[in-house]
Amino acid sequence: MTPSEFQTLTGAAPERMADLAVFLERLTEANEVMNLVGPDSIPDFWNRHAWDSAQLLNLAPEARTWADLGAGAGFPGVVLAILLKGRPGAHVWLIDSLQKRCRFLQTIVDELALPATVIWGRAEEQSVTVDVVTARAVASMEKLLGYAQPYLSRGAQAVFLKGEKAEAELREAAKVWHLEADLSVSRSDPRGRIVTVRTLRRGPQKRKHA
């Protein structure tokens, strides 16, 4: 995917495209000294990282506040913050337990003046209230739901970027969690899945009898 193709898909303003280009440059530089993303994925930045993240906005178009759990290199959180920049009330919390990743995220937030707050700590211990909680490549669904549960209890919806094993992960998670969730195909990779969780509580999913 080219930058122009990304811009066509998202409707991103030229200023936001410039921000994303700076983000790509800083990511490429930082990735030389720390393992943020697989180096082979950087040439495919606009599809594999930027569009993969940006597609979430189409699933929650009214959402203004987001929490990215295990924000890592900034996907999807930094991309969301860039695209939400300038919208009234927009804010993204970038939460990660590794200090060096938080330092990288903070440099991006500062340089691009993003509507975002970087938090160094465990995701499940934070008290922020948001419209949507999200994550990508953080943990199995069972563990991820544990990290996200406090946010859902405060009214958030969960939208997670997962791989092709998402359905199997949901079945495993149902042994521990009772949840209402939808699966949709990722627009950046047909093998990927987006899991939208509407309700969640601890306790195994009851099986329906024929």
Automatic annotation (TrEMBL):
Name of the protein in question: Ribosomal RNA small subunit methyltransferase G
EC category name: transferase
Pfam family, one: GidB
Compartments in which it is found: Cytoplasm
Methyltransferase keyword on record: yes
EC number: 2.1.1.170
Keyword set, alphabetical order: Cytoplasm, Methyltransferase, rRNA processing, S-adenosyl-L-methionine, Transferase
GO cellular component: cytosol
Organism expressing this protein natively: Brevundimonas goettingensis
Molecular function per GO: rRNA (guanine-N7-)-methyltransferase activity
Keyword Methyltransferase: yes
